[in-house]
Write a structure and sequence with these properties.
Blueprint (H helix, E strand, L loop, with lengths): L9 E7 L3 E7 L32 H17 L6 E5 L10 H15 L4 E6 L7 H9 L2 E5 L5 H7 L9 H9 L6 E5 L1 E5 L2 E4 L3 H14 L3 E5 L10 E3 L2 H12 L5 E3 L1
Helix pairs in contact: 1-2, 2-3
C-alpha cells in the first residue's frame, strides 16, 4: 500500500503544476494520515495506513518551523511563489486552523510579502465558522469538487461522513461569494469492481450547474500526475481536458487546465 509522502510539518519547496514554487504546510501527523475523504487517487495513500503516533503539530510549532524555513530560504536568495496548506490529509481538521492561518500570513508578510497563501481543502468543513473564517483570509481558497453527483463522489473521494452531500458542499462554497477556486480531478478507471468516469456528459452537465451556483473565481481542471493508491485509474489527457474546459468556458466559467 502506498504510504505517506510528507514526513515533516514544513516541506519543500516543490514545483506545483498549478501554483508555482510552493512551500508546503502539513497540519496533519508527520507519520500518518488524517482526512475526511479517502480518495482513490490521493498521493498520500489511503486512510487505512492510520493516524500514526506523532499527532497534529501544535500551532506554535508550526509557526516556529515555518519561520526557520522562510528565514533560511530568504538568506539563500530562494524564490517562493506560494505557501500551501497541504500534506497528509485535510488541513481544516486542525483545531487551530484559523490561528495557524493568521501565523502563516504574518510570517509571509515578513519574509516573502509577494508570495500567495493557498489552502487545498476538500470542502467538508465549511459548516465550521472558524474554518470559513480562515479560508476567507487566504489568497487562494482552493476547494475540491470532483463530481456534482453524490454517488460518484462516494466512489472517487469516499467521504468518511455518511451524510456527505454535494448540495451541502455547494451551499458551503456559495458563502464565499465567488472568492474561491474550485478544483476538479477528472479520471476514469475501475476500483473494487466499480467503473469510474466523471468525464461523461451527465457528469460534466452536473458540474457546470454546480459551478454556476458557486460562481468561483476560477476552476482548476486536472488529472492524475502521480502514482495513486488505487491501481486501475486512467489519466485524462490534456486535449480532452481542454474540450471539457471549453464547455465550461462557453458558459462563462474561467477554467485553468493543468
Amino acid at each position: 500500500m502506498q504510504t505517506v509522502l510528507f514526513t515533516s510539518t514544513i516541506f519543500g519547496p516543490i514545483h506545483s503544476r498549478r501554483l508555482g514554487t510552493s512551500l508546503g504546510v502539513n497540519l496533519m501527523p508527520a507519520d500518518g494520515k488524517v482526512c475526511s475523504f479517502d480518495c482513490l487517487y490521493c498521493e498520500a495513500g489511503f486512510n487505512a495506513q492510520g493516524h500514526g503516533t506523532k499527532g497534529l503539530p501544535p500551532r506554535a510549532e508550526v509557526a516556529r518551523l515555518l519561520e526557520e524555513k522562510l528565514a533560511t530560504m530568504q538568506s539563500e536568495g530562494m524564490q517562493l511563489d506560494v505557501i500551501t496548506f497541504s500534506g497528509n490529509g485535510e488541513p481544516t481538521l486542525h483545531p487551530d486552523f484559523d490561528g495557524v492561518v493568521d501565523d502563516v500570513l504574518r510570517l509571509r508578510d515578513e519574509y516573502y510579502p509577494q508570495a500567495k497563501v493557498s489552502v487545498l481543502s476538500n470542502a467538508t468543513r465549511l459548516h465550521v465558522a472558524q474554518v470559513v473564517d480562515g479560508l476567507r483570509k487566504v489568497d487562494n481558497n482552493i476547494l475540491k469538487l470532483d463530481s456534482a453527483i453524490d454517488a460518484t463522489v462516494r466512489v472517487i473521494d469516499r467521504p468518511v461522513a455518511k451524510g456527505y452531500s454535494v448540495a451541502d458542499v455547494v451551499n458551503g462554497m456559495k458563502q464565499f461569494d465567488g472568492q474561491c477556486i474550485v478544483q476538479t480531478m477528472m479520471l476514469r478507471g475501475e476500483y473494487d469492481g466499480v467503473s469510474i468516469d466523471n468525464t461523461t456528459d451527465e457528469e460534466v452537465d452536473a458540474l457546470l450547474k454546480a459551478y454556476q451556483e458557486i460562481a468561483p473565481r476560477e476552476v482548476m481542471l486536472y488529472s492524475i500526475d502521480r502514482k495513486t493508491p488505487a491501481e486501475n485509474l486512467v489519466k485524462v489527457q490534456r486535449d480532452e481536458l481542454e474540450r471539457i474546459a471549453d464547455r465550461f468556458r462557453s458558459a462563462g466559467i474561467t477554467v485553468q487546465v493543468s
